[in-house]
Amino acid sequence: MSEGMKLEDVVCIGRTHGEYLALFDLASERLKGLRVLDCPAGVCSFTADACQHGVDAVASDRAYAFDASALYEKGTQDIVTTMKALEPIQDRYVWSTYQTIEGLTAFRREALEKSTAHRKRSPERYVEASLPQLPFTDSSFDLVLSANFLFLYEEHFDEAFHVQALQELIRVSSREVRVYPIVGLNGKPSIHLDACIRLAEAQGCRVTQADVPYEFLKGASRMLLVEK
Ligand SMILES: C[S@@+](CC[C@H](N)C(=O)[O-])C[C@H]1O[C@@H](n2cnc3c(N)ncnc32)[C@H](O)[C@@H]1O
Protein backbone atom coordinates (compact mmCIF):
# COMPACT_ATOMS: atom_id res chain seq x y z
CA MET A 1 0.00 0.00 0.00
CA SER A 2 1.20 3.56 -0.75
CA GLU A 3 2.82 4.78 2.43
CA GLY A 4 0.41 6.53 4.78
CA MET A 5 -2.55 6.29 2.42
CA LYS A 6 -5.87 6.22 4.27
CA LEU A 7 -9.28 5.41 2.84
CA GLU A 8 -10.36 8.99 3.71
CA ASP A 9 -7.69 10.26 1.27
CA VAL A 10 -9.10 8.33 -1.69
CA VAL A 11 -11.76 10.02 -3.82
CA CYS A 12 -13.91 7.28 -5.35
CA ILE A 13 -15.63 8.99 -8.25
CA GLY A 14 -15.65 7.08 -11.53
CA ARG A 15 -16.80 7.45 -15.13
CA THR A 16 -18.69 4.92 -17.21
CA HIS A 17 -17.54 3.07 -20.34
CA GLY A 18 -19.68 5.37 -22.50
CA GLU A 19 -18.14 8.48 -20.99
CA TYR A 20 -14.63 7.08 -21.62
CA LEU A 21 -15.44 6.39 -25.28
CA ALA A 22 -16.53 10.03 -25.63
CA LEU A 23 -13.76 11.68 -23.68
CA PHE A 24 -11.09 9.65 -25.46
CA ASP A 25 -12.90 9.84 -28.82
CA LEU A 26 -12.86 6.04 -29.22
CA ALA A 27 -15.24 3.65 -30.98
CA SER A 28 -16.00 0.42 -29.15
CA GLU A 29 -15.33 -1.71 -32.29
CA ARG A 30 -11.83 -0.20 -32.64
CA LEU A 31 -10.88 -1.58 -29.22
CA LYS A 32 -11.93 -5.18 -29.82
CA GLY A 33 -9.01 -7.58 -29.34
CA LEU A 34 -6.70 -4.86 -28.01
CA ARG A 35 -4.93 -4.97 -24.69
CA VAL A 36 -5.87 -1.72 -22.94
CA LEU A 37 -4.72 -0.21 -19.64
CA ASP A 38 -6.83 2.31 -17.71
CA CYS A 39 -4.63 4.14 -15.19
CA PRO A 40 -5.63 5.50 -12.79
CA ALA A 41 -8.98 3.75 -13.11
CA GLY A 42 -10.43 4.11 -9.61
CA VAL A 43 -14.09 3.09 -9.64
CA CYS A 44 -14.49 3.75 -13.38
CA SER A 45 -16.46 1.01 -15.17
CA PHE A 46 -14.54 1.17 -18.47
CA THR A 47 -12.70 -2.09 -17.76
CA ALA A 48 -15.89 -3.91 -16.73
CA ASP A 49 -17.76 -3.05 -19.93
CA ALA A 50 -14.74 -3.19 -22.25
CA CYS A 51 -14.06 -6.81 -21.19
CA GLN A 52 -17.66 -7.67 -22.14
CA HIS A 53 -17.00 -6.12 -25.56
CA GLY A 54 -13.99 -8.31 -26.32
CA VAL A 55 -11.28 -5.98 -25.04
CA ASP A 56 -8.44 -7.33 -22.92
CA ALA A 57 -8.69 -4.48 -20.41
CA VAL A 58 -6.80 -3.94 -17.17
CA ALA A 59 -7.47 -1.27 -14.52
CA SER A 60 -4.75 0.08 -12.28
CA ASP A 61 -4.97 2.48 -9.33
CA ARG A 62 -3.25 3.04 -6.02
CA ALA A 63 -6.68 2.85 -4.34
CA TYR A 64 -6.79 -0.91 -5.05
CA ALA A 65 -4.79 -1.25 -1.86
CA PHE A 66 -8.33 -1.24 -0.43
CA ASP A 67 -10.76 -4.02 -1.24
CA ALA A 68 -13.75 -3.57 -3.52
CA SER A 69 -16.29 -3.36 -0.67
CA ALA A 70 -14.32 -0.65 1.15
CA LEU A 71 -14.06 1.44 -2.05
CA TYR A 72 -17.77 0.89 -2.71
CA GLU A 73 -18.68 2.30 0.73
CA LYS A 74 -16.35 5.26 0.24
CA GLY A 75 -17.64 5.78 -3.30
CA THR A 76 -21.25 5.86 -2.08
CA GLN A 77 -20.37 8.68 0.33
CA ASP A 78 -18.18 10.49 -2.21
CA ILE A 79 -20.98 10.70 -4.76
CA VAL A 80 -23.15 12.53 -2.20
CA THR A 81 -20.31 14.85 -1.11
CA THR A 82 -19.22 15.63 -4.68
CA MET A 83 -22.74 16.43 -5.87
CA LYS A 84 -23.24 18.80 -2.91
CA ALA A 85 -19.97 20.54 -3.71
CA LEU A 86 -21.05 20.89 -7.35
CA GLU A 87 -24.33 22.68 -6.59
CA PRO A 88 -22.90 26.20 -6.10
CA ILE A 89 -20.46 25.94 -9.05
CA GLN A 90 -22.74 24.43 -11.72
CA ASP A 91 -22.01 27.31 -14.09
CA ARG A 92 -18.44 25.99 -14.54
CA TYR A 93 -19.84 22.91 -16.29
CA VAL A 94 -21.61 22.04 -19.55
CA TRP A 95 -24.83 20.14 -18.81
CA SER A 96 -25.77 18.88 -22.29
CA THR A 97 -24.97 15.24 -21.46
CA TYR A 98 -26.16 14.98 -17.87
CA GLN A 99 -28.84 17.74 -17.80
CA THR A 100 -29.02 17.84 -13.98
CA ILE A 101 -27.10 16.83 -10.87
CA GLU A 102 -29.48 13.85 -10.55
CA GLY A 103 -28.61 12.84 -14.12
CA LEU A 104 -24.90 13.05 -13.34
CA THR A 105 -25.42 11.06 -10.12
CA ALA A 106 -26.94 8.19 -12.15
CA PHE A 107 -23.74 7.93 -14.26
CA ARG A 108 -21.51 7.97 -11.17
CA ARG A 109 -23.63 5.27 -9.49
CA GLU A 110 -23.53 3.09 -12.61
CA ALA A 111 -19.73 3.34 -12.71
CA LEU A 112 -19.41 2.49 -9.01
CA GLU A 113 -21.82 -0.46 -9.17
CA LYS A 114 -20.35 -2.00 -12.33
CA SER A 115 -16.70 -1.53 -11.41
CA THR A 116 -17.24 -2.97 -7.94
CA ALA A 117 -19.11 -6.04 -9.24
CA HIS A 118 -16.48 -6.65 -11.96
CA ARG A 119 -13.56 -6.27 -9.56
CA LYS A 120 -15.17 -8.86 -7.28
CA ARG A 121 -15.65 -11.24 -10.24
CA SER A 122 -12.30 -10.60 -11.94
CA PRO A 123 -9.83 -9.31 -9.33
CA GLU A 124 -6.86 -10.16 -11.57
CA ARG A 125 -7.86 -7.27 -13.85
CA TYR A 126 -7.53 -4.70 -11.03
CA VAL A 127 -3.88 -4.05 -10.27
CA GLU A 128 -2.72 -1.91 -7.38
CA ALA A 129 -0.06 0.55 -8.54
CA SER A 130 1.09 4.02 -7.67
CA LEU A 131 2.21 6.34 -10.42
CA PRO A 132 4.85 7.30 -11.42
CA GLN A 133 5.76 3.61 -11.24
CA LEU A 134 3.77 0.78 -12.81
CA PRO A 135 4.33 -2.97 -12.34
CA PHE A 136 4.06 -3.78 -16.06
CA THR A 137 6.79 -4.64 -18.53
CA ASP A 138 7.65 -2.37 -21.48
CA SER A 139 5.02 -2.24 -24.25
CA SER A 140 2.56 -4.46 -22.33
CA PHE A 141 -0.50 -2.65 -23.73
CA ASP A 142 -1.64 -1.56 -27.19
CA LEU A 143 -3.41 1.45 -25.74
CA VAL A 144 -3.04 3.26 -22.41
CA LEU A 145 -5.81 5.57 -21.16
CA SER A 146 -5.46 8.06 -18.33
CA ALA A 147 -8.46 10.18 -17.37
CA ASN A 148 -9.25 12.86 -14.83
CA PHE A 149 -5.97 12.74 -12.96
CA LEU A 150 -2.91 14.15 -14.78
CA PHE A 151 -3.17 17.88 -15.62
CA LEU A 152 -6.53 18.21 -13.82
CA TYR A 153 -4.84 18.05 -10.39
CA GLU A 154 -1.87 20.16 -11.51
CA GLU A 155 -1.74 21.92 -8.14
CA HIS A 156 -1.38 18.68 -6.16
CA PHE A 157 1.23 16.99 -8.37
CA ASP A 158 4.27 18.90 -9.57
CA GLU A 159 5.86 19.03 -13.01
CA ALA A 160 8.40 16.30 -12.21
CA PHE A 161 5.57 13.95 -11.20
CA HIS A 162 3.64 14.69 -14.38
CA VAL A 163 6.67 14.10 -16.61
CA GLN A 164 7.61 10.86 -14.82
CA ALA A 165 4.02 9.59 -14.85
CA LEU A 166 3.60 10.26 -18.58
CA GLN A 167 6.97 8.64 -19.29
CA GLU A 168 5.80 5.54 -17.41
CA LEU A 169 2.48 5.42 -19.29
CA ILE A 170 4.44 5.68 -22.57
CA ARG A 171 6.83 2.93 -21.45
CA VAL A 172 4.07 0.37 -20.85
CA SER A 173 2.34 1.17 -24.16
CA SER A 174 3.42 -0.29 -27.48
CA ARG A 175 1.46 2.17 -29.64
CA GLU A 176 -0.58 4.91 -28.04
CA VAL A 177 -1.31 6.84 -24.84
CA ARG A 178 -4.36 9.07 -24.43
CA VAL A 179 -4.64 11.54 -21.54
CA TYR A 180 -7.80 13.54 -20.80
CA PRO A 181 -8.21 16.37 -20.03
CA ILE A 182 -5.24 18.66 -20.69
CA VAL A 183 -6.58 21.50 -18.56
CA GLY A 184 -6.47 22.13 -14.82
CA LEU A 185 -9.57 22.50 -12.67
CA ASN A 186 -9.68 26.16 -13.79
CA GLY A 187 -10.42 24.99 -17.36
CA LYS A 188 -7.15 26.48 -18.67
CA PRO A 189 -4.31 24.52 -20.34
CA SER A 190 -2.34 22.84 -17.57
CA ILE A 191 0.87 24.45 -16.36
CA HIS A 192 2.52 21.02 -16.84
CA LEU A 193 1.34 20.45 -20.40
CA ASP A 194 4.37 21.88 -22.23
CA ALA A 195 6.86 19.87 -20.16
CA CYS A 196 4.91 16.67 -20.84
CA ILE A 197 4.73 17.36 -24.57
CA ARG A 198 8.51 18.02 -24.65
CA LEU A 199 9.13 14.74 -22.83
CA ALA A 200 6.96 12.71 -25.22
CA GLU A 201 8.51 14.34 -28.31
CA ALA A 202 12.00 13.77 -26.92
CA GLN A 203 11.08 10.08 -26.74
CA GLY A 204 10.31 10.14 -30.45
CA CYS A 205 6.52 10.18 -30.07
CA ARG A 206 4.07 12.11 -32.23
CA VAL A 207 2.00 14.34 -29.94
CA THR A 208 -1.36 15.91 -30.78
CA GLN A 209 -3.79 17.98 -28.72
CA ALA A 210 -6.93 16.46 -30.19
CA ASP A 211 -10.54 17.64 -29.90
CA VAL A 212 -12.90 15.12 -28.31
CA PRO A 213 -16.72 14.94 -28.48
CA TYR A 214 -17.07 15.51 -24.72
CA GLU A 215 -16.96 18.53 -22.43
CA PHE A 216 -18.25 18.64 -18.88
CA LEU A 217 -15.81 20.98 -17.12
CA LYS A 218 -15.85 24.05 -19.37
CA GLY A 219 -12.64 24.12 -21.41
CA ALA A 220 -11.98 20.36 -21.03
CA SER A 221 -12.68 19.38 -24.62
CA ARG A 222 -9.30 18.07 -25.73
CA MET A 223 -7.02 15.14 -24.97
CA LEU A 224 -3.32 14.54 -25.38
CA LEU A 225 -2.77 11.87 -28.02
CA VAL A 226 0.71 10.35 -27.86
CA GLU A 227 1.64 7.95 -30.68
CA LYS A 228 4.83 5.90 -30.48
C1 LIG B 1 -10.74 11.40 -10.15
S1 LIG B 1 -10.28 9.69 -10.09
C2 LIG B 1 -10.38 9.29 -11.82
C3 LIG B 1 -10.76 7.85 -12.04
C4 LIG B 1 -11.03 7.46 -13.51
N1 LIG B 1 -9.87 7.67 -14.35
C5 LIG B 1 -12.20 8.23 -14.06
O1 LIG B 1 -12.00 9.14 -14.88
O2 LIG B 1 -13.32 7.91 -13.68
C6 LIG B 1 -8.54 9.81 -9.79
C7 LIG B 1 -7.92 8.49 -9.35
O3 LIG B 1 -6.50 8.67 -9.23
C8 LIG B 1 -6.05 7.75 -8.25
N2 LIG B 1 -4.66 8.14 -7.87
C9 LIG B 1 -4.28 9.23 -7.16
N3 LIG B 1 -2.92 9.25 -7.08
C10 LIG B 1 -2.47 8.16 -7.76
C11 LIG B 1 -1.17 7.66 -8.04
N4 LIG B 1 -0.05 8.28 -7.64
N5 LIG B 1 -1.06 6.50 -8.76
C12 LIG B 1 -2.17 5.86 -9.18
N6 LIG B 1 -3.43 6.29 -8.94
C13 LIG B 1 -3.57 7.44 -8.24
C14 LIG B 1 -7.08 7.87 -7.17
O4 LIG B 1 -7.05 6.75 -6.29
C15 LIG B 1 -8.37 7.97 -7.98
O5 LIG B 1 -8.95 6.69 -8.15
From TrEMBL:
<feature type="domain" description="Methyltransferase type 11">
    <location>
        <begin position="111"/>
        <end position="172"/>
    </location>
</feature>
<dbReference type="GO" id="GO:0008757">
    <property type="term" value="F:S-adenosylmethionine-dependent methyltransferase activity"/>
</dbReference>
<protein>
    <submittedName>
        <fullName>Methyltransferase family protein</fullName>
    </submittedName>
</protein>
<dbReference type="GO" id="GO:0032259">
    <property type="term" value="P:methylation"/>
</dbReference>
<dbReference type="InterPro" id="IPR013216">
    <property type="entry name" value="Methyltransf_11"/>
</dbReference>
<keyword id="KW-0808">Transferase</keyword>
<dbReference type="InterPro" id="IPR029063">
    <property type="entry name" value="SAM-dependent_MTases_sf"/>
</dbReference>
<dbReference type="Pfam" id="PF08241">
    <property type="entry name" value="Methyltransf_11"/>
</dbReference>
<keyword id="KW-0489">Methyltransferase</keyword>
